[in-house]
Design goal:
The chain is an alpha+beta fold and 345 residues long. The protein is built from 8 helices and 16 strands. Strand 5 and strand 6 form a beta hairpin. The two termini are 51 Å apart.
Length: 345
Amino acid sequence: MTHVALTIDGRQLSVPRGTTILEAARSAGIRIPTLCHDPDLTPYGGCRLCIVSVEGMRGLPPSCTTEAAEGMKVTTENAEILATRRDVMRLLLADHPDECLSCRKSLDCELQRLARELVVREHGLIPIARKATRDDSNPVFLRDMRKCVLCARCVKTCQEIVGLGAIDLVHRGSESEPAPFLGGDIRSSTCESCGECVVHCPTGALTFRDPPPEPDREVSTICPYCGVGCGLVLGARRGVVVSSRGDHDNPVNKGVLCVKGRFGSIEYVNHSDRLTTPLVRTDGELRPTSWDEALDLVARRLKETPASAFGALASAKVPNEDNYLMQKFARAVMGTNTIDHCARL
């Protein structure tokens, strides 16, 4: 049997075997709050905010790690579940800094949104000031582990998506926190500053050093830094590119970016030296021209150039197919094997 039938909040559902209760509920448009779950990562079950009630099952199991079973009857919200979720939220807030207004993640913080959703305005517990790391050694993002809720999303992102494992959960109890192997600052670790951990962090524990302003328009495009073809979503404000994020709909990178794609594209796109039109040298001076005139000039010069004087230099910033065409043009059209490729970006 490839599918299982279950009931969630009185609704009959049929989902593929292996689907968790959380995934089944989301597929039916039923919201279950969660903090540690991320659709890009394997289930963790750390925050316990996604608890549900399952008929015949003891306690309140986390929906993100509990697989849907045949005939299962699930209740996602009642008085007991709400009370338990609020208690969990109060515990999370008890040792969390009260800096929401000045936090870089304010209004974009999942912990903040969930506290509002659960109507938890005061935790009513004795505040606990955790001894935690504050690290500003990285040039692109900041680490403030006082605001960490130990969801492990940054750790799992670095391990499962990036495949690097630059950080892991260290120490025990109230002293636990994500940190580089053997301690030290993040800049001295194997971190590649891709920023994926920051993107997946639900709180202000990880934030970009220079957060961009809110864009008024977004455009999907392809990253030009190499030939992989990663999808970018560039955000523009008043005609100027201000942000760059991965395109989850792109089949190549599925939203993942390296440090060049995330941070490099903004600077050079807006640079004053960037060429936006072809230039032709006339009497020692470069002048703007049309593409037709520029391409006609290139074709004429190539016809006049003997094979012994021609060399082709391909680029690492274009797809492999374009590099193939370049070498084919050099060999079949220009008649030379003098070809090089710059892959030293």
